[in-house]
Amino acid sequence: MRAGSRISNIQLRYNHGGITYEVSPVQWNVIVNDFTCKLVASDTELQGAFEVRRLVFVQEQGVTEALEYDGLDDEALHVIARDEDIVVGTARVRFPTRNQAKIERMAVLEPFRRKGIASAILSFVKQELRNRGIEHAVLHAQTTVTGLYKLHGFQETGSPFREDGIEHIEMWMDL
Q1: How many CA within 13 A on the CB side of residue 64?
Q2: Quick one: which of 19, 61, 88, 168 has the fewest CB in 10 Å?
Q3: Other residues' Cβ atoms within 10 Å of the Cβ of residue 1
Q4: Which of 160, 96, 147 is nearest to 170 (CA)?
C-alpha cells in the first residue's frame, strides 16, 4: 500500500462542485482527482471490497468474522473506491423495502482516511440510490464518525447501541 500516494493532495468540497459525476452507459463513476468510486463489476473488485472490510473491521476493530461476513452480501449492491487498481474503500447497500436502502460496511483503509474518500463513496451511493428511485436511506454509524454522515444530510434517530462491542447509532435521511 502506498500511504504517500498521489491521492494525499485531494481537496474535496462536499456540495460545491468538487466532485465530477461522469455517466457511462454501464455504470456511474465518480472521479475525484486520481481515485474512482464505482459499482463493483467483477469478482476481483468484490474480493477487493471484502479485503478492505477484513482489514478494517476484523483486523483493526476486532469485529468477528461471523458478524462481518453475515451471508447478506449476495443480495447487496457493492461500491468501491479505487486508487488505480488498489481498492482503498468500500460500502455495501441492501434494500430492506422497495423504497428504502440500508448503507452498511462502509470502510476506508487507514492510510487513505481523511482524504475525502468516505465522503466520495457516500456521495456516489446517494446519487445511485436517487437514480434507482429510492426515497430513504438508513445506516448504523459508529458514533465516532457521525459527523461525516451529518455532513451528508443524515440525522440521528434513537439511542446509541453496541454492535460487536462498538457503539453505533441509527441514522437516516430522505433522498
Answers
A1: 6
A2: 61
A3: 12
A4: 160
Does the pTM surpass 0.90? The reply is no
Task: Kindly report, residue by residue over 119-157, the tens digit of the pLDDT.
Answer: 999 999 999 999 999 999 999 999 999 999 999 999 999
Contact 80, 28 (CB under 8 A): no
Residue carrying C-alpha cell 476484523? 58
Q: What number of CA atoms fall less than 13 Å from residue 1's CA on the CB side?
A: 15
Query: Domain residue spans in the chain?
Result: 6-134
CATH of 6-134, one of 3.40.1190.20, 3.40.50.1820, 3.40.630.30, 3.30.70.100: 3.40.630.30
Residue pointed to by grid coordinates 437516516? 172
Per the structure block, which three cell numbers stand in for 74?
Answer: 449476495
43 is written with which cell numbers?
A: 469478482
Rounded Cα–Cα distance for residues 159 and 152 (Å)? 20
Q: Taking CA 97 as the corner, what is the angle to CA 92 and CA 103, rounded to the nearest 5 degrees? A: 20
**3-state SS assignment for residue 21:** strand
The whole-angstrom separation of Cα 119 and Cα 16 is 13
